[in-house]
C-alpha cells in the first residue's frame, strides 16, 4: 500500500473485531510472533511496517496518520488498537486524533512521553542507542538484553537468540532508527490524555529499564477509567516475555467490547 510519502507493508489474519497492532522502536510486524497466532483466533489482526523518512518534530503524528490511512484503506470504520513502546505513542495519537476510529485502546510498555515522571538511566539509554558497542550485532544484543529480564533469557535462551537474529535481519537503517528515537523523545501527550474516550488498558513489566514502571502508573492515572496491569519479573519486552498473560489480559479486556 502507498500513501503520499510512504509505503506500508501489512498482514491481516483471523476473523472478528479488527485489532491494529503498532510496533515499537526498531521492531516491525515480525515482533508480534507471540500475539498474532493467539489473538487472531478472536480478532482480525492487522500488523504493518511503515517505510518513510520521519521529521522528528512531528514523526509520531506522521506515523499515526499512516496507521489511520491503512485502516481507511482496509475499510475499517472502528478498531481496537494495541501499541507497544513507541507504538504506544502512535496509538495515543491515533486515539486523540481519530477518536471515532478507536474502540478499545491497549498501551504496553509505554508512557506519555517527554514529561514522564521517571526517565530511563543513562546506562539504559546508552545501550538502547548502541553506545560503546563493537558493531551492529553487539549493539542489537546489548539492547535486547537490556529490554528483557535475566530470568527470561535464562529460561528461553534459544528464543532470545532468535530475537537477536530477527532484529538484525529486519532492522531499520541507522538513520531511520535515530529518526524514530528522536520522534519518540519529542512526543508529549501528558496534557491531552484526559480527552481519550476509548476504554484503555495499560500493561507494563515491573522490571522495565527502558520505560520504568512508574510511568505506567502515571499514564493510567491520566487516562479516564483506564486499567493498569503490572507483571512482575518482566522487562520492556513484556509482550514477548509474558506473552500468555499479556494475550489473556488483552483478549479479556477487548472481547466484551
Characterize the main sheet.
7 strands, mixed
Task: Tell me the overall shape.
Answer: globular
Radius of gyration: 17 Å
Strand arrangement in the largest pleated sheet: 1-3-2-4-5-6-7
Poorly predicted ranges: none
Percent range of helical residues: 40-55%
| First-residue to last-residue Cα separation | 29 Å
Helix and strand succession?
A: EEHEHEHEHHHHHEHEHH
Q: Report the total helices.
A: 11
Kindly estimate the percentage of residues that lie in beta strands according to DSSP.
Answer: 15-25%
Count of β-strands: 7
Derived structural class: alpha/beta
Task: Describe what this molecule looks like in 3D.
42% of the residues lie in helices and 17% in strands. It has eleven helices and seven strands. A seven-stranded mixed β-sheet has the order 1-3-2-4-5-6-7, with helices on both faces. Strand 6 (200-205), helix 9 and strand 7 (227-231) form a beta-alpha-beta unit. Helix 2 packs across helix 3 (86-97) and helix 4 crosses helix 5 (136-147). The two termini are 29 Å apart. The model has no long low-confidence stretch (mean pLDDT 92).
